[in-house]
Amino acid sequence: MEFACGFVYIPPSNNKKVVHKKSPIPIKRSALLPPQSRLRLRNPPPPPPLPHTVLQKPQPPSSESRITESVRKIKDVKTAPNPSTLCENAGLDVQNLPQPLSSHRTAPLLPNMHTRSSTTIQPIPAPGPPPTSNSLTYDLPNEEPESGGHPVEPGYSNNILISSGEEIKLQNKNSTNRSGSTQKSAPALPPRPSFMKSCPEYLVLLPDSFSSTRTSSFSPTASPLDLVKGQPLPGNPNVILVSLGMLITEEHELLIKGEPTSCRQCGSVLDSYYDNVVNVCYFCQPMEPSTSSSLGCQDSVFLLTPGDKALTPTGSMLLLCIDISGSMSITSQVLEGKQRMHRSRLQFVQEAVLQIVQKLSKTEPHTQLGIITFNHQVTLHGYEDFPSIVLWDGQLTDSDYLKELGFSFPSPPPVSRIRDYLQREILGWSANGATALGPAALVAIAMASRQPGSKVVIVTDGKANTNLGNLEVEDNDAQSAFASTIFYQDLGAYAASQGVTVSVLAIEGTDCRLDELGKLADHTGGKVVIACPHELYTKFEEIIENRTIATHCSATLLLPTNLSVRGEREAGHKGTRDVGNVTSDTEITFQFGASSNGDVTPPVVGSRLSIQLQLRYRQKDGGSVLRILTSEREVTDDSSDVLSSLHLTIIQLNSSQASAALAVRGRFQDARREGKEQRELIERALEYNRSAEDKNIYSQWVKTMHPIHNGLHSYTRRQPIQSDSQQTLTDTGAALFYTMKNSNRNALAK
C-alpha cells in the first residue's frame, strides 16, 4: 500500500477547526521615527538666518505651558520675556528638563548629540549678518500643504534629530557643562539649498543603507512553496496505490490460521487476534484525534480456509474461441518477400493459432489447450477419441442448456499430447455463416469454470448477430439492445465468480461492438486488444503470458468516520472493489478525502489517522486468504507540504484509471473533468524542483491522456438523429479506455 502524498490533505475550507497561525513578524521601526500617522510633508518658505541651530516641533498649548513652567524652576535659567519666544527658540538642558506628559515616547539621542552644559536660554536676536558655519537656518512653515506635495530631492539628506515634544539645542564647539568641562558639539549642518521645494517635517538620523534594507524586507525571499500556503489545491492528492500482484506473491514466514479479531459493523481488524470481537472500533466510531501509532494490524496474513494441494492442476487451461463466420473470408493484400499476396482474415488466424500450439507444446507442455469455433453453429472440438459436438438452431438460445453442456464437456488433455490432432483441426476451418458469438462465449466460460485461473480468448472480426447476445440490432429496437447489454454484463460477472479470465481480440478495421464485449474482459481482469492481421500471434503471446496468480480478489479500504472513499461501490468511510482475477502486474488505486457529511467534524490538522487495507483472495489450491495492512498519516491543510511530498506517478496512474472508468460507462463529461483536475494538480507540483525524469513521464502521460482531455469526440459513435440512446464508444475507443482502466505504472513509462 503506497500513498501518493505523505499527508492526509484537508482543504482549508473544509477544516472547521480554527487553527491560530503565527502572525508575520512586524518590521521594527526605529525609535527615532515619529508615529506613521503623523508623518507628513511640508513646504515651508525660505527661513531667515538664525545664530543658533535649534529644532522645535510645534507643541499643543497644554504641552507649551507645562514645559514653560518647568523651565522657570531651573535656577541658572534666565527667564525669557516672552513665553512664546521661549518655546519657539530656546536651548534647554535635556537632563534636567521634565518629560512632557505625552503618550509618545521620547526618541533617544545619538551619542554625539548629548548636551549637558548649556543651561541658559538665549534670546532670539534681531535679524543680522549671515549665520556662521556652525549654525543652521530653519523656520516652521506657516501652513500645511496637501500630502501629495513635491517629492524630496533624492540626493539630499537633512540630518536633523527627531524629538517627541522636547526642545533640543545643538551645542557649540566651546559649550560648557555643569562640571566645567568643555564638550565638543556635533558638526553643524549645511544650509538647505534653495532648489529644495519641500522638506519632510520629520527627518531621521539613520544610515544610508536603511532605505534599501527596509525595501528589501518587503520583497519575497521565501521559496515558491511558501507562496501556495493556505491556498486549496486542485484535484485530490489523497490517492493510495495497491500493487496486488506484488502483495499476493510475497512470501510470509508467519501465516496466521483462523479468523482475525474484527469489528461486527465495519469488519476492521485489530492487532490482536486472540479475541474474535472488537468492542471499541476506531474506524466506525467517532474517536478523539490521535497522535499515537497506528491502530490495527500493521501487516498480517490470515489463512481463512486451507486449500488442497492434491487438487491443484499441473497446468493451466487455455480455451481459444475462434470466429469462422463469413466475414472472416475477407482478404487483404500483404507483402511476402517481394511478392504481394491476398490472404483472408481466417488464414491469418489459422497461422497465429498454429504458432501458439507449437510454442506451448515446447515451453509449457502441460497446458490444457481447447478450441471452440463459431459461425451460425458452435463447435466444441474433441480430443483424440472424444468426438466433437456441434450446437445449432434452438440449442443456441437456451442459456441453461449451454452452461450445463460446457460444464460437462471433458477438459482438454495437455497440449503436448494432442498437438498433431489440433493442427489438423485448425487447418480444416472454413469461413461461412453468421456470428453466434454469445452462445460460444457462454459455453467456453462454463467449460473453463471447472478449473479456476483458466483463460478464454475470443477472436472475432464482427458483431454477434444471433438471438443470444445479438449486437447487430436496429437502433429503434431498444428492448433487444438492452437485453444484449444485460447478457454480457451477467456473463462477465459469472466468469469472474468462477475465476475465469476472458480476453477479447478483434481484427483491425472491423466493428465488433467492443464497448459491450469489453465488459467480459473488464469484469474478469482480461484484455481488450485490436490487432492487425499479421500481428495476431504477437497479441496472442501477450494475452497468454499474463498469468493469473489469484482469483476472487476484493480490496476493501477502511477510513475513520470523518473521511470517505470516493468512486467506490460503498459510500462513506468504507469502500470495496471486486477485482476478480489478479496477475503479477495488477495495480489498482483508491481516492479518499474529507467526508461530505456536514454533520461530521473534519479531521483536526496535526492529528494522525490510521487507514486499513484488506485484501481477500483465493489461491490456486483453493485456499482463502486475508491480508491486512494498516498505515497512518498526519493531517495537514498546508498545500506546500503536500506538493513537496507528492508522488506524481501514482497520481498519474489514478487519473488514467479513474477517467477511463468513467468513459467506458458513458460519463464522458465526468471523465474529462476528472482528468483536468488531476492534471492541474500535477502541473502545480511540477513547478517545484522536480527532476527531469518526472517531467519526461509527465510528457508521456499527457499523450496517453489526450483522448480524455481533448479527443473524446473522436472515440464515440455517431448517434442517429432520432435516437435517444446513450452515446457509445467506437471499437478503438473501447479498446483504449479498457486498457487505460486496467493499466499499471509500467504502462505509463512506455
From TrEMBL:
InterPro entries: SEC23_SEC24_subfamily, VWF_A, vWFA_dom_sf. It comes from the Eukaryota. Residues 28-159, 172-193 are annotated as: Disordered. Residues 317-547 form the VWFA domain. Residues 66-78 have a biased composition (Basic and acidic residues). Residues 96-105, 172-185 have a biased composition (Polar residues). This is VWFA domain-containing protein.
